[in-house]
């Protein structure tokens, strides 16, 4: 089922998400809905708070980027109860966008790699290091779990430059080709 994506300014996007328990009801349905919602919006990552669920669940599908980013080949993953354990000291700057912040793209500096502890869709534990574009996407989605929007990583001057756009998004004056939910 395609769900509405919550837009910038909605209070749930500012909350720290909670870990889920092993007996979480309808997990497979939640994951299927998240993948379907993300694909419908032509996104590559989606965190549960973006659909109004304040739990530490992320889906990522980077396979459409494989031509330009070989590390994205067959990269379709679920990250449950993910926690970043370590990041590289070295960083890189890449332009990011977000389904919850339509029409804003900004160059953001993030660590080049990340060590993540998480559960997969079968609730099996993993600890892996990700680099390149997968690392960036994981960090972006992980920020959603911490109540942080990617726009918060922009410089003060850049934030001022897109403040009017953020105000329009909060007021619901935005056109999206996917279902959205405002405050």
Written account of the structure:
This protein has 183 residues and is an alpha+beta fold. Helix content is 23%, strand content 31%. The chain is built from four helices and nine strands, in the order E-H-E-E-E-E-E-E-E-H-H-H-E. The strands form three sheets. The protein has a five-stranded antiparallel sheet with strand order 2-3-4-7-8. Strands 1-9 form a two-stranded parallel ribbon. The longest helix has 14 residues, at 27-40. It is globular and about 45 Å long.
List the helices and strands and how they pair.
Blueprint: E1 5-6, H1 27-40, E2 45-47, E3 57-61, E4 76-87, E5 91-98, E6 101-111, E7 113-119, E8 125-131, H2 132-145, H3 156-161, H4 163-170, E9 180-181
Parallel strand pairs: 1-9
Antiparallel strand pairs: 2-3, 3-4, 4-7, 5-6, 7-8
Our measurement of the CA-to-CA distance between the termini, rounded to an integer number of angstroms, reads: 21 Å
**So what's the overall shape?**
globular
Largest sheet: 5 strands, antiparallel
How helical, in percent, are the residues?
A: 10-25%
> How much of the polypeptide forms β-strand, as a percent range?
25-35%
Radius of gyration: 16 Å
Please identify the structural class as seen in this structure: alpha+beta
Integer average pLDDT = 95
What's the order of the H and E elements? EHEEEEEEEHHHE
* Sequence stretches where pLDDT stays below 50 over 5 or more residues: none
**Lateral strand order in the biggest sheet:** 2-3-4-7-8
Count of beta strands: 9
Number of helices: 4
């Amino acid at each position: 089922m395609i769900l509405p994506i919550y837009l910038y300014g909605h209070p749930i996007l500012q909350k720290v998400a909670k870990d889920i328990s092993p007996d979480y009801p309808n997990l497979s349905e939640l994951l299927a809905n998240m993948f379907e919602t993300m694909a419908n919006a032509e996104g590559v990552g989606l965190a549960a708070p973006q659909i109004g669920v304040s739990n530490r669940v992320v889906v990522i599908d980077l396979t459409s980027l494989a031509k330009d980013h070989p590390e994205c080949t067959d990269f379709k993953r679920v990250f449950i109860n993910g926690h970043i354990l370590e990041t590289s000291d070295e960083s890189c700057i890449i332009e990011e966008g977000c389904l919850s912040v339509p029409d804003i793209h900004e160059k953001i500096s993030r660590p080049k790699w990340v060590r993540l502890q998480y559960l997969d869709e079968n609730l099996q534990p993993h600890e892996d290091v990700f680099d390149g574009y997968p690392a960036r996407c994981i960090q972006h989605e992980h920020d959603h779990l911490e109540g942080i929007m990617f726009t918060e990583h922009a410089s003060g001057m850049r934030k001022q430059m897109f403040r009017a756009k953020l105000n329009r998004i909060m007021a619901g004056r935005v056109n999206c080709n996917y279902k959205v939910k405002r405050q």
